[in-house]
């Protein structure tokens, strides 16, 4: 698998990362090197092997359904560039 | 993925176009907010209507380093819903990240389930009708899957000229996305499907189904085709928030698509919005930004796994569902129509069952449907606000059965209980409404009426139907308290009318 320049630009746009044309062409090379390296994994035959999701087999921890958090709107909005009455304010977005 | 067509084109459901009839094909995605105290992956409250950002934890605000921990009750609610939809429960499912940017999505991704949802294929039986003959038709609609995901926050656009307000209280609340197969073929079927889905969710207690507050929302996929032909290109109508609007959105969208195709055009696959004011749909997103959510398994969460015992335990404690309840009520002697009214909402069914306990089911059903629901409807009240309790209505029915009051007087007692409250038996006692069953007293009244009307007596001998007039006079004289059957028998005997 490899990526072309258009794909690099598209992925950057989807991730909302600003990439100049120069950066994009150097990224194209870098990404293809990484993908080529990862590609080697395909040499291993994994038919019939379950995907490994954890180094030690373990069950996902579950929480009891209880309210244990919240009521800290001031903390939540403390870092917001703009807020009012504990709402976040963002540049207007309307579909 | 190949789509299997489970339906045969039905002329009743087709809509006419300039080039002949068209068939509408509809699939639905219902987003149902899970009833739970706290959110899917955080301990913040799910309560509706809190102050802005009060029900937000650092997890919901996606602060760096915060890790999600799943709420066990939300998992149970999803499994219960799956069982209620007669669906396959997947003992292993996986959470994925669905990546997109929007100000009400602080993580930059929604934790959802993509390839391995918690619930697989199931089915819902909807009831469509009544048709011109008053008949209802049952149609089986396939369920494709149900998965758990996080809800997003809420944006408000009308508070400020250049800024949008964002409240994250809803961010992270558990949602069940329930996807149907494209088995629906008319707007009526789509409305019946949503109604039935809401009914099932409410019976299960897994979602309150309140579309006004947005705790149930529907995305509707609509395409048109020549009857029985290949599936057409579909458009998705997002976030329709009432059952009536779903019907309107489908009708207008189908007409829009037919007009385009009949003019020689083709349908663009796109997302559209329904504008209730204009009664039509409009394009929401342009096609150039085709969505690419770049799903991948969420590395913060292990696969969700449980065993058969977990599912079995939930299955055993599942409440009786509307279809089963309806079948049971029909087996008690109720008509299918009456039974479907009673099971339409769980609180109505519960009310009815309390009234019917130890009493004749048919009589109880008549009183609940005709008198109670009629009066509630007239007063604009819901069943929860009824001024007449099941015990009081049951008391009235008992008084009829014991012969203490006639059916007619019972209606008056119902009125009194409705307005003033009180125990029906006491009311009947205190207000002297008891039916006169004393044969001697009734006989006296009958004699009086006969003696006062010799001419009518002569006429009645030739025309037995006149007996009814005498009964009426006696009832009037006793202010309706005489037992009508007893009066009738006495009048006929005195006038010498053979039965």
From TrEMBL, chain A:
InterPro entries: Asp/Glu-ADT_sf_sub_c, GatC
Catalytic activity: L-aspartyl-tRNA(Asn) + L-glutamine + ATP + H2O = L-asparaginyl-tRNA(Asn) + L-glutamate + ADP + phosphate + 2 H(+); L-glutamyl-tRNA(Gln) + L-glutamine + ATP + H2O = L-glutaminyl-tRNA(Gln) + L-glutamate + ADP + phosphate + H(+)
A Gene Ontology BP annotation from the UniProt entry: regulation of translational fidelity
Domain of life: Bacteria
One Pfam match: GatC
Record keywords: ATP-binding, Ligase, Nucleotide-binding, Protein biosynthesis, Transferase
EC number: 6.3.5.-
Molecular functions (GO terms): asparaginyl-tRNA synthase (glutamine-hydrolyzing) activity; ATP binding; glutaminyl-tRNA synthase (glutamine-hydrolyzing) activity; transferase activity
Cited Gene3D superfamilies: Glu-tRNAGln amidotransferase C subunit, N-terminal domain (1.10.20.60)
Function: Allows the formation of correctly charged Asn-tRNA(Asn) or Gln-tRNA(Gln) through the transamidation of misacylated Asp-tRNA(Asn) or Glu-tRNA(Gln) in organisms which lack either or both of asparaginyl-tRNA or glutaminyl-tRNA synthetases. The reaction takes place in the presence of glutamine and ATP through an activated phospho-Asp-tRNA(Asn) or phospho-Glu-tRNA(Gln).
Subunit-level organization: Heterotrimer of A, B and C subunits.
Family label: Belongs to the GatC family.
PANTHER family linked: GLUTAMYL-TRNA(GLN) AMIDOTRANSFERASE SUBUNIT C, MITOCHONDRIAL (PTHR15004:SF0)
NCBIfam families with a match to the protein in the record: gatC (TIGR00135)
Protein name: Aspartyl/glutamyl-tRNA(Asn/Gln) amidotransferase subunit C
UniProtKB/TrEMBL annotation, chain B:
GO biological process, one term: translation
Major enzyme class: ligase
Keywords (A to Z) from UniProt: ATP-binding, Ligase, Nucleotide-binding, Protein biosynthesis, Transferase
Asn/Gln amidotransferase domain: residues covered: 350-495
Entry EC no(s): 6.3.5.-
InterPro entries attached to this UniProt entry: Asn/Gln-tRNA_amidoTrfase_suB/E, Asn/Gln-tRNA_Trfase_suB/E_cat, Asn/Gln_amidotransferase, Asn/Gln_tRNA_amidoTrase-B-like, GatB, GatB_C_1, GatB_Yqey_C_2, Gln-tRNA_amidoTrfase_suB_CS
UniProt keyword Cell cycle present: no
Catalytic activity, as annotated: L-glutamyl-tRNA(Gln) + L-glutamine + ATP + H2O = L-glutaminyl-tRNA(Gln) + L-glutamate + ADP + phosphate + H(+); L-aspartyl-tRNA(Asn) + L-glutamine + ATP + H2O = L-asparaginyl-tRNA(Asn) + L-glutamate + ADP + phosphate + 2 H(+)
Keyword Nucleotide-binding: yes
MF terms in GO: asparaginyl-tRNA synthase (glutamine-hydrolyzing) activity; ATP binding; glutaminyl-tRNA synthase (glutamine-hydrolyzing) activity; transferase activity
PROSITE patterns hit by this protein: GATB
HAMAP family in UniProt: GatB (MF_00121)
Family classification: Belongs to the GatB/GatE family. GatB subfamily.
Its biological purpose: Allows the formation of correctly charged Asn-tRNA(Asn) or Gln-tRNA(Gln) through the transamidation of misacylated Asp-tRNA(Asn) or Glu-tRNA(Gln) in organisms which lack either or both of asparaginyl-tRNA or glutaminyl-tRNA synthetases. The reaction takes place in the presence of glutamine and ATP through an activated phospho-Asp-tRNA(Asn) or phospho-Glu-tRNA(Gln).
Subunit structure of this chain's protein: Heterotrimer of A, B and C subunits.
Name of the protein this chain belongs to: Aspartyl/glutamyl-tRNA(Asn/Gln) amidotransferase subunit B
Species whose genome carries this gene: Oricola cellulosilytica
Phylogenetic lineage: Bacteria, Pseudomonadati, Pseudomonadota, Alphaproteobacteria, Hyphomicrobiales
Gene: gatB
